[in-house]
Target: AP-3 complex subunit delta
Amino acid sequence: MALKKVKGNFERMFDKNLTDLVRGIRNNKDNEAKYIAQCMEEIKVELRQDNIGVKANAVAKLTYLQMLGYDISWAIFNIIEVMSSNKFTFKRIGYLAASQSFHADSELLMLTTNMIRKDLNAQNQYEAGLALSGLSCFISHDLARDLANDIMTLMSSTKPYLRMKAVLMMYKVFLRYPEALRPAFPKLKEKLEDPDPGVQSAAVNVVCELARKNPKNYLSLAPVFFKLMTTSTNNWMLIKIIKLFGALTPLEPRLGKKLIEPLTNLIHSTSAMSLLYECINTVIAVLISISSGMPGHTASVQLCVQKLRILIEDSDQNLKYLGLLAMSRILKSHPKSVHAHKDLVLACLDDKDESIRLRALGLLYGMVSKKNLMEIVKKLMAHMERAEGTLYRDELLTRMIEICAQNNYQHVVDFEWYVTVLAELTEMETSSKHGCMIASQLTEVGARVADVRAFAARECSAMCARAAATPPGPASREVLYAAAYVLSEYSTEESVMRESISSVLGCARTGGGTMRARAVCVHAAIKLIAKLLLLYEQRGERDSAVDVIQEALSNLKPLLCSEDMEVQERAHNATALLTLVLKRIDPTADLHETVDTLVEHDSNGMTNDVELNGETISFSNGLLEEFASLFEGELKPVAPKAQKKVPMPADLDLSQWLSHERWSSDSSSSEDECSAVFTVPQPDARPVTHLTQDELEMLREARRQEQANNPHYLKDDSPRSYQQDDIPIAEIALEVPLQVQSKRSDKYLVLRESSKKTKKEKRPTKKRKSKQKHTTESDSDDGETALTRRPEVEAGGELPEGAALSDEDTQPTGSDPHRALDLDLDVPLRDEELLVTRVKQYPAPGEKVTLEKAKKEKRTEKKKRSKPKTEDLIPITDVNNAKDKTDKHKTKTKKDKDSKKKKSKKDKHGTKLGYEEALGISTPSKEVI
Model:
């Protein structure tokens, strides 16, 4: 035996250890995979040996390979063998490998239950700590259920190291086995007042993590945490406690009144920025939850804002970001306190860090009001001109539109100014995505605000004129779609309509990626012409009507051969319709040859003028009135969820076919052939042919070639189809950015400021005390002059009959492990909720108990007892309190002493039985009850 041991140690001298493995991988960079495959084969050979040291060395190498991404799940059983080693160095290697490779669904975890129980109850505290650390990485539901009592026992250990690890381990037990929370909560509550600061901090962390999802269950611990907050000097534990109070305050507003003073003292005294930030966040939560009438809350808000200003002005980018983040939270409840620091937020827009600039933009979203909206937008537009980076410029434009459009345009007083801002943003030329956003805003303002429609039509006319003169950019192409619609739908001025016809039709002739807007421009021109002709007919101006039609026909002529099929079709329809109208108005008009061949109209001897009492009322015999009636009526906005709320008809069956099969014999009956007068007789039946896969592919390829060569086939209008033709022009990088000297939107701000000055001059010098209640800033802005009074904005949109304005969709709730921990911890425990443990007390390592002696005792005990018990289930509370009860009742009566003797005999019997059952286990465990 000794010779074999010496031989094994001699062979181990030549084994490749972990250092050799790492060195070999570094030296074989060219063929690393081949070298690792060779090492894997060597490791498999080492794992088949009996020497536990060789196995531990192999498992250590497998742990390193697992960190490189290799799968070692095939070695789980060998890892368990190393974990069960009696030598601590080998055991540590096994637990490290298990923590990396095991998971809760591993099949062989059931083999580790007794082994981990033995390690948890080991005399060496580091072995128990090692078991707790490894178990936390791969604990499953079964392990949590079986080992909950052992871990709870370690919470009462005399060693602070084990108590701290056991408290932290109980959090993982609660997640896997929520039924252990109620029995373990009293002991967890005791650890909050543990004399060791490490155990105390661990208990605070566990409770804070549990309360992060279910804070109402831990409201009863508020007095304990309040005492810790006022007495502890550990900043990290204070941060946890303060965050917990921030979650508890909304549930109990009375708690917030007591927290204001200690939190304010911490804000004044602490120098730790992390603790200061958490104190400010909790003060914000407290001030939101308590009533606004609490005395002194304004001073607390001002203190928080002043401290946050210090954070924002700090050179550290992280502190600056956190300051802006906390300032946005104060903004929701106390906007006036933040409005005073508007200059600081605007200065953050020039920061080099893009995340800080974006956070400052988000803060400006809540700082705007009716008084400062124009000023903030002006600064944002000036900042956008000199900003670098396409992504940031696009974000600036998005936030600018969101600031103006929030809450149904509640802060926009002058919509002419807003339409001008949209037009100027279009000229800046951003991406097409933001062009769609500007287009939707332009359409929405025209549909909702009736007072600004005439001005919006004029601005859209100018946009169309610019687009017809110069090729539009990506954003202008999308805005042109909305501009043509707004111009044709809401224009009422004769001069604007007359000048816009040629520019709108000129936009329809532009090429490139404006296909979507070109067809709309042709339709918009028809609407403008219809309005103009009706106006000229009412005034009897025949020559003006003829001039408009002839000008439109000449501009439509190039569109008759357009490459866009929709533009070509609309141009043909418009030409035919206008020719028909021109024939009715002036039959002697000189039509173009191509136009003259389209439509031939006969007046049938009808006169062109209709006289009533000597006055001419119409020169088209009512045709222009019918022409204009095609576009009568107002198109109202539609609610976003209107289509989803349309009820399905009762007689609609979506699973039923709407038509019969084309080639079925039923559809080719004699009755159908007789009734079909203008249709060609169908053949009797279509022959059924079975094609192979190669023949199908050949037919598909032939069809694709035919479609590609067919000029009348509508191709896919995807972005790839015109990507080659629409090559963006590279911008020249200028050292000095281009600056616009003045903008059209600035005059509205100047006009508003001048109106404020005149209003102040007219105000009497004597001040009167206001007896009214405090109103919000938005309400105070309503008392403006008539010049800046906000027009009415239509809210909502059209919905189906019986549908509500807006129904929020219910969000699907995912699988949350904290949901099972939402338990009422104040209700007393029931008997079935008590955790039970298997009493298996094993002899000390020094005692020698043979198998024959155990069998003999078992036979004698069977004779004495009629029902043998192999396992005694004892509630955990009784086990923990058994020692205390015996100490208190030492001086009892003789009856009590006899009962204690009987109980000790039973315990002794249980000890012997438990050890005998463990004889068949390779790694028997010892429980400390």
Observations:
- Residues 515-539 form the longest helix (25 residues).
